[in-house]
Amino acid sequence: MNVPAVHLQAGDVLLDLPVENRCQLFEVIGRHVERGGGPSTESVASALLRREQLGSTGLGDGVAIPHAQVRTLDRIRVFYARPRVPLAFDAPDRRPVVDIVVLLVPHPTTQEHLEALAEMVSRFADRPFREMLHRCDTSELVATHFRRAVVPDVCLSR
Question: What is the pTM of this model?
């Protein structure tokens, strides 16, 4: 499956975000979802925060993949965010985060949620993918890069 090709739109790529912490990030994502006719800012932000309180979704290498189930969501939503200033995310390597993929899934969750999460982890484990992503300076280029990039098989079990 190519999750970004199906679920990531250029309008859901948020570059140069003026946020200083995870809470602000989750609020921005929540407002973005609500403006697009989705669940409320509060339901999205609180779902992401609750998941983060279980353990950081920071992976290391400057990457975080916050994800949560949202009861009133009707489909998987994927967002890519690049903050103006790297964010502390309690990643295992203690490095701040520059690449953030937010994955929101309907409740109850399905196998597709786990596959989408595995695919994102696999993509970001690939250094050339991250390096090329950092050269993308518009939402359209980011979305295109996600669609065209080959998903490494390293982390995917099929």
Answer: 0.88
